[in-house]
């Protein structure tokens, strides 16, 4: 690893460069949704609910497939200074649409939509408090809410006709941010790091070690191959820990 | 009181007709806002944040007065079945606008806007989980968030030049719903009661026993004077208990 | 009553505290609508049309019930200074939505929607000239337009299969504003009073003396029980006179 | 003239081919606007108000010129069947925008905007009842409202510094529709004719006999030179009568 | 002709008063659309595509008729200074809607919609570069794209059951602007002329010499009969040349 | 490289796996914009214009820095089947917003905004014809339009006070897509490949070999490290060729 590049850099939080923030995944956080998880990555808190509906979007009607989609929102005062309420402004901003498209694609990557059948699962990810990494926390938490919703369907016997076990879920996904801050590759950036770093990359991986999504942006200088490699190594470590946290939460530990 | 009208009616929750649900007011629920309160009326949970900004709307510029306003939202899966996200639909519905106007008016009734000076306090009331009475919970919680924001300003010496103590706050406000269910006047309706009752009234009162807002609607049959009197008596009892709960929360009890 | 509080108060219009403005209800004001009434409360003039359509909103389809709904608008120069045209701004304001929801609820309270059958009656209330009390004038006028539309349907034999007389109409509704101005409870506030009063309440009542809607707001100080009682007494007197005016208009007097 | 083309055609209204409908121009129809005229072309009734504001659009700021603009609306039940309220749909339709642009251009043609000074006059033309020809009625009525607003300004001494009489008004404009119905050129089409005619043309002329706007549309077959000539002759006759009616109204006859 | 009115006027382009700009009609300009034509009137360049869809708008369903409609857009930097992107502003302006309604009406005038059958042809006219006359160029180019789309349908045997040759096309349409500049009637105004002229008229004609649309506007002074006659004579000459250019393009010359 | 993975895969276009499509960059494509480039990647054609304005967004006012931003659009029939016009729908879709944010960030990475001074350069990228890779073509073409706009400013002496050569441009950026199709890593995917591939990655690089943006998405299966390495190698080769094509175009070759 390339932490030798800038041995003097100290993270604002005092964490080691390859250290995640404290992660919690609280299932059953609200009572109406089929899956409801409050995910915390340190001070970032996102409420992820999974809602099951017995219909599919127009483009899928009659095809025998289901759909998984996501919506993302931020409470106006989740952030340091109050931001406009998107419902009051009358439209969702580009950042919001970009994030909810990313969450939707990431979650669809772990679902067998034919096994799901003609139903839609909507993952609502609402940020109650933001401190960097809201989209990666959202993906990580939404996965647990999604599995809970599938389990709710399974418990009602909805997948009886389908052969085999935990059906429409074909893997697990988790996401984490990595970046280069003060020349040092770091894992799971908080807001203080995120706003000052040179490069920022969000990585979505599955439990087979494959990449689902990779979104890297050079904020300061363009990043080199060795920096990319260092960031990917951190992402691999971080998502492995997050995948373990998801399994622990689902196992009730 | 007229509870003798229908002695057979039993509240779905098992509560006495004049009994509030369990009420909690958790201050400092999120960390960025100048005031942040999670209010629970039973299973109804609303996050109320107060945000201070050093500007006023155009119609008040240069008049030496401040402004207090509110915005209301409901997370899509706060309810039994998922409702559309208003930001995605591109506009706030009539019910939302009506409620946020009510919250704003109610809170302005306890503020001396000249003492506040040229700043705006925005109360964001976001429903995390709904079980009836979200607007009354929101008003009751927003009052505590508002006082916390004023205290934050006071602690920074912003009202030094104003003579006297806890300045721009000139009273306390709390709100509760009352209704006629199965012929019985009841206090603080939950969703099961609200959707089946004949009459539903939201009452906002201050700590001087005065009415700030009264909004009664006959859902089934028109209500009579004696029913109105019975409901107002319950409202007086309920708001008195809520005003006490607010003071306890603010005193750190 | 509490008129002794401020015996010196004189209404800008010179009216007695319990005196309505001159009320006229002109039926057949325009020719296309099934019901069309110009209602005047003094200088407040609202055109109320009732339109019958043989369809119901999606949530009622196939349930054998009809729907009654309302829309409210104000011509840009109905007011002292020109206000923006809502169609040009691209959305209806909160006040507009609040008023049209109130009108719709009030009128539904006098209709048997099963007797109406699967049709929708839309009450369009457009303010040609405003001088306070537009929403109460609108409700009072819309009732007459609604009855005319029902009569039009009856004349075409649409309710033949339903047993009994003036079918889907199960009562009458009228509305009036009351308030406390300069300490005096007054009936039917005009703009000069409305903009300066301490408390303003809109009351919708039926011909059985029951309350349909009650919406009171303390603009200045919170109102007390005795003030509420005085206002309700005035409202009872005012709506009784308005209900008589409606019957006279419908009888062609 | 070519009325010999189809001698058998009888107008639904029984009017002669070159006969206007009954025209009335009622000044002072509402009381708040600086100019307020109800114009009737037969059963077509349009309320035209002129509102004076002491500001100009951004593109004119600081140029010493005024602005004259128009907005057009149709009450939902001005027509045979109810049309959607544009404010509720969230946008003005193409027809509405086209008509209000036409009204604005037509009225600007009779105003010296430098003499007007840095103020805006907005002409709101709202159709209370439609029976064809709403845009031509609107232009004809808006002219009278505009002159009343200018007179109101003159009476307040606003144009004292400008030399000469009725300053910013430099002419008069009126508009009428003409068309070919059943082969016969006719003047001032009502709805029954308008919806069935082959060609429809709206002509705006000034009191000098010049053309301000000409908008002809072949609905059925393309129109020939001789048909155009016949229509223009009718338009000349019709606008001359309308210009006389405007002068009579302004003279208080 | 009346060019003697102001013999001194010289067109900025050096053209004779009755001279069109260089006109080109490039078919097959893009590859996906059923018809795709780049039309140039001098420096004005508009891409016109015709898209065939097997559905009709709701108001035509089941009536056995087709529909022809148009949409118009201007790239933000088609003009001298950048104009806002309408998609970003969230609505199409009045000018855009007016132009696309004109294009649609003009093209429908040359189509037998019953012969077309239940399909919609949408003409998208997007201005890549503007130098005056974009709407007349759009109509002229859209006609060629429309014929190409009809030919594409014919080649697929879609009109086999209909008797006769080039079926749903019942004529040709072309459009040109004319105006009075410096007192001289001129043909096909470019931007330099358009922005300074006294009168501007857009004329749509068919190959039978009939008028489809006539839209004249007095920008400076009202125009007289003799000026109208001179402009119409120029329009007749111009559209004849454009109709010939269309036929040449369609013949592959 | 890993092309041995699936030796049997043949690209629909017949290209070698590491072969770009024919690339052209036509400068001065339209005449009004300060920079105007038509970029073609095979059948994908995007018109990129750079517009200079002497103002900056509110958040930069008075900071002495400039801004570079982008807007992206697709003509309705740029694609196989017609898509809705975003201006008519009233909002830009999530994909559009995502792409224009990417273009803006990429171009800002090669600009010294302090050297640019308080002006905004807007890059409008409008797709005339789409065949895959529109966003990478847009970035590649927009760079050339941006340099032309800077050169236009330089030629007017705008950067005289700044020391040194081709000032505000501090590097070059180009973009290309790479993917895994039928198991084979391929460069510059066209539509046929894009819609069927397993993984799709857009890579933006600078002329120093650094990464500006990396956006990879697993459409089918999650991609592994070796696949990522193979794709990045192709991206390096492709962007190098595109950077050379940009320099050739700017040199007038």
TrEMBL record, chains A, B, C, D, E, F:
Coiled coil: none annotated. Gene3D superfamilies: GHMP Kinase, N-terminal domain. It catalyses: tRNA(n+1) + phosphate = tRNA(n) + a ribonucleoside 5'-diphosphate. Pfam families: RNase_PH, RNase_PH_C. Homohexameric ring arranged as a trimer of dimers. HAMAP family: RNase_PH (MF_00564). This is Ribonuclease PH. It comes from Cognatiluteimonas weifangensis. The gene is rph.
């Amino acid at each position: 690893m390339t932490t030798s590049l800038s041995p003097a850099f100290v993270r604002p939080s005092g964490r080691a460069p390859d250290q995640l923030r404290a992660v919690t995944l609280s299932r059953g956080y609200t009572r109406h949704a089929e899956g409801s998880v409050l995910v915390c990555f340190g001070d970032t808190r996102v409420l992820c609910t999974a809602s099951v509906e017995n219909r599919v979007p127009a483009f899928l009607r009659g095809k025998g497939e289901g759909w998984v989609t996501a919506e993302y929102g931020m409470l106006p005062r989740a952030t340091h200074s109050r931001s406009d309420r998107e419902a009051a402004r009358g439209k969702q901003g580009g950042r919001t649409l970009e994030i909810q498209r990313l969450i939707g694609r990431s979650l669809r990557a772990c679902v067998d939509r034919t096994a799901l059948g003609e139903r839609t699962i909507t993952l609502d990810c609402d940020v109650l408090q933001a401190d960097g990494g809201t989209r990666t926390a959202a993906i990580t938490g939404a996965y647990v809410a999604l599995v809970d919703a599938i389990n709710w369907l399974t418990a009602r016997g909805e997948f009886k006709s389908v052969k085999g076990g935990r059906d429409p879920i074909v893997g697990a996904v988790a996401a984490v941010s990595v970046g280069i801050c003060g020349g040092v590759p770091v894992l799971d950036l908080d807001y203080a790091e995120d706003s000052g770093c040179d490069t920022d990359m969000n990585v979505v991986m599955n439990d087979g070690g494959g990449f689902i999504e990779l979104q890297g942006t050079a904020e300061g200088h363009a990043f080199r191959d060795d920096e990319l490699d260092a960031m990917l190594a951190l992402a691999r470590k971080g998502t492995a820990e997050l995948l373990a946290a998801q399994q622990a939460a689902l196992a009730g530990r």
